[in-house]
Amino acid sequence: MSTPYHSKLWAHLLTMRAATDDFDRITRAAANARVDVNPHQIDAALFALRSPLSQGAILADEVGLGKTIEAGLVLSQRWAERRRKLIVVVPATLRKQWAMELEEKFHLPSVILEAKSFNSLLRQGHSNPFDLRNQVVICSYHFAAAKSEFISQVSWDLAVLDEAHRLRNVYKSTNKLAKNIQATLARTKKLLLTATPLQNSLMELYGLVSIVDPNVFGDDKSFQAQFTRQSSEDRNQLLRERLAPICTRTLRKQVLEYIRYTNRIPITQEFTPSDDEHRLYEEVTEYLRREVLLALPASQRSLMTLVLRKLLASSTFAIAGTLRGLIRRLENLQPINVEEVADDYEGMDELEDEWDDTTEEERVDPQLLAEELSLLRRYADLAESIRNNAKGDALLTVLDKAMDKAKSLGAREKAVIFTESRRTQQYLFQLLTDNGYEGKIVLFNGMNNDPLSTHIYQEWLKRHEGESVITGSRSADIRAALIEEFRDRATILIATESAAEGVNLQFCSLIVNYDLPWNPQRVEQRIGRCHRYGQKHDVVVVNFLNKRNEADQRVYELLAEKFQLFSGIFGASDEVLGALESGVDLEKRIAQVYQECRTVEEINAAFDALQKELESSIESRLTETRRALLDNFDEDVHARLKVYEGQATERLSEQQQYLLSLAKVELANDALFDDSTPRFRYSGNDAPSGIYHLDWKAAEVNGDNFFRIDHPLAQALVDRAVTRELPPAELAIHYSDYEGLISTVQALKGKSGWLQVTELAVESLELEEFLVFSGITDDGGIVDEETCLKLFKPKAMVRQIDPSAIPPASVEQFEAKIVKEKLHLVEEKNGRFFDEEVAKLDRWADDLKFGLEQEIKDLDKQIRELRRASTTAVSLADKLAAQKAQRDIETQRNKKRRELYEAQDAIDAKRNELIENIERQLKQTHRLKPLFTIRWTVV
Question: Are 64 and 44 part of one and the same domain?
Fold first, then answer.
């Protein structure tokens, strides 16, 4: 008994553009998300969207609080506003993870741009592969820097920079990558994500803020003069005030009532390689140290050497296959290329993206060629003769122990085993199949084209035939099939690095690092597949320790003790992982130790030096300063989060109810609705047939379609309702049949009146939309906005209206009054944003002038010191030298004074130019669009 008038109202309520600082601004994004959004994440997203004049924000929540979710909400909101020029710049290791998170949690399509996909788009005729429609672009920092000319040509609506502490040294002339990114995205609104915006120096904070907005502080010299040369409570308070509009940080202790964390429990399994295994390791290691290596391209020798070392440590099967490849290429005088090694080592794309080799190619000497081929054949023969690996035997020993530990913690009997090599993956599959796990194993890698995976995929297609979980993309669907198989039926997932990217395995709480990466960020990412938000059990982490390899032992010690990756609640802390600008840089350093150090003493000395260097970065002396500047302990934080928690529950429930009610009206002939749950069976033409559920968790459990405002079916219903022309009508509102109590509507029982609903769109800094309810009773009483909205809650019927009946003039007069009030509120709010920007620009101008004045003061000080030196000098030569130096400094000072006046004028001119630009944006226009007029009666 709801009506088309109800439909039109609900459709507008679902799609209106809310005010910039209104909670409803984020409601649509949250309603579309396939994730439980926590109050602090709403708080952060609203902060990022707060002012339309802002150039961006730094979200600096402590690790583990879901900064990706916060950024996802902002991206999703921009997407809903049809501002779809979006770019996400991340470390190479996180590209696939971001793509999967955006797709799975926010239904945002994305494309990862790297050399291969970029060149493919160029060949397809795209003049600029970054300028894509309706796809979020994801790329690595190094690729963004390399393709800056293409990126800078796009008018981006938002750029998200994850692990943004990589850019904190942008103020240093040597940091070319950060400066490149800063210049490339200079005109773009930016969102920086980092748990460690301040690590070793206040200048790092200056660097990050200047990337977001260069007009918050003056230049680096003025910042140093004003903030870094002195330390006081007054300075901290001043800095805190300056940072408040641009940087927000939530602490774990503030959200413990919303999020439950589990522990990491480490198990270390030692093993001793056989004599043959050890001999193979030693001989191949010496081969890789040769001055001339013909089998490897000189231009990428250090990168390829690192990869060969990793394969050598993985298994004899991994290195044997690669050695045979080297032999084949060398026999044909063709150096092995990166793609061939990448076929077995899946971490190659990340390494290649951040690796620079510039050595010139070697000339081929026939005698050296014959000698090298002989060595390689000997190594390959030895590797192929070794059928049992000590580490594989150790896996069989520790797996049962680790399973028992996980079971004792209440977890399911499931383990994910990570290896860096596909050949090792096959070896482990056979080893475990032969030792009690036959039929219980799933393989997961970058190809997923083996017979077992193909069979699992075919069975998955049969099970889900006709369901929307099938996307049509084989690569995406086979990943989903393999993860479902592991979750529902198998016991072990043997995975290469592909599973460390973009796969959520919260249902598993046992991780085995069969091969241990040297990059702490990569290790953290692996463990984070299981130890993440939603994990119900403590997570067991198994690592292996080679007792015959001192360097391997020191790497493990570094990762376990210095980076604290394997134990505790959060694994690596903010300070620890934040100390690394790039984990690949650390891998290079470790590879250098393996390459150059031969004796135990040399190895230990090199690792001692490396640890000491890391400690100086990790053990920051700025802990107290960081707390004073960034950590917010005000009670209003807790109060605000409680309010957001309540609002989120209420508004999301409201949105869900509007959407369900809209569906019931618009799909009355095409769907069968369940009275007990927000669920219906659809069989129409606007979307695939099937069961649709408005609760994402229930939809996931039941295999239903998640019905949300951005779903194509919902969009079709909204478009239909919004565009429908509705003539004036009379609505009989059946309050007597309503089961609940609405006191304001009950007070109108037996009364009649008029209601006009109009859409008000205000265009100034941003587009904002309002619904204007002009409601009156026949006796001239005013019906407020809240009551007008509640009139649409009970069932109603449309009656024919008397053609001669027209609303009284007071309806139009009331509407004009409401419109005037709303326009005034928008103007008042924009005035606050304007004042905030002007204050920022005034402080920026003062900073620059302060820096110039400080330079003159420093020169005055030098002049005074030279005068004293001249007076106290004994010899005439010294007196003359001091006088000459004094004159030079005085000339320099007088020149600086003239420059100061000119610079101050230039600064004021720049400030005025910026303010004029803001004033142009503030010009306000509005339009009114009548939606419908009804005569109402409450019965």
Answer: yes
